[in-house]
Amino acid sequence: xxxxxxxAQVDETSVEAEEITxxxxxxxxxxxxxxxxxxxxxxxxRRAREKEARKEKKRARAEQIANGEVVEDDDEKKRQKKKPxxxxxxxxxxxxxxxxxxxxxEIQSLCSQLAYTYSANxxxxxxxxxVFSSLNGRTLTRLENTGDAAHTRWTNTEWWEEDYHKLxxxxxxxRSSDEIKQKVVYLTADTQDELTELRSDEIYxxxxxxxxxxxKVSSSFxxxxxxxxxTLRQNLCFDKAQESGVRTARLPIGRYLSNMPTRKVLTxxxxxxxxxxxxxxxxxxxxxxxxxxxxKFQNGSSKALGGVGEREA
Length: 313
Description:
This protein has 10 helices and 8 strands. The protein has helices at 27-66, 74-79, 104-123, 137-144, 166-169, 177-181, 236-244, 253-256, 268-281, 284-291, and strands spanning 91-95, 129-133, 157-159, 184-187, 203-207, 219-223, 228-232, 247-249. The strands form 2 sheets. A 6-stranded parallel beta sheet has the order 3-2-1-5-4-8, with helices on both faces. The protein has a two-stranded antiparallel ribbon with strand order 6-7. Strand 2, helix 4 and strand 3 form a beta-alpha-beta unit. The longest helix is centred in the N-terminal third of the chain and has 40 residues, at 27-66. Residues 217-233 and 300-310 have low confidence and may be disordered.
């Protein structure tokens, strides 16, 4: 009997699955990936540059504002036709004769307010002639070190080392010293006389003082441990006007704005801007409500009571 040939047994467990090797990326795909990576990096760099450029533009504009050299954007110039300026004829003097009454921080704040004052006058439809008197001391130093003495390039502006007495100490051909002096009005909240209008033939003085009303109390009582005794404190602008023999007046804030729960304190430039707005509108309520910060109003409304001063006026 013929023997059967042995059948070959295949052990399936000994057969390993064939490994599939992925195809190598093509040169084209490698180039595309590298290009996308470069583009992403460039996009990040571009965004960083644009962000830095915006910051620089903002910083430069802030410096222009501080130096009183603000100009409208080119796009804004295209959108708006330039309106002709009509000079009101009046003069505003900012009395800088309080240099020794302020701290360094207050001097810095005052110089910023002067720049805003000039900028407002420059852009106004009915600008005043603007004079800064008693320029000396730390105020002068601060201005000279700001924007390469940018204040010396301000237009329609005069800077005097002398105090405001120069207004009538050098009479013009048409008016005597007494006639000029009668037209001078020092703005201060400490007087009982209230402005009803601004006149083009008058000269208005704003006290260039930032003191947060530190010097502001006419009379009060203090306890000297032996009971309350009266004491007198300075009302610097009012006292100075009295010594000079010039009229005083205050803005009619009390007549128009009642909802001011905070101190009735305005900066030099805000007092000036109120005057500019009145010349434009001939409306005290509109001028006051337009300029005075809304945070000073209760419920944002605008009817009757107030005063001015960071300087009050």
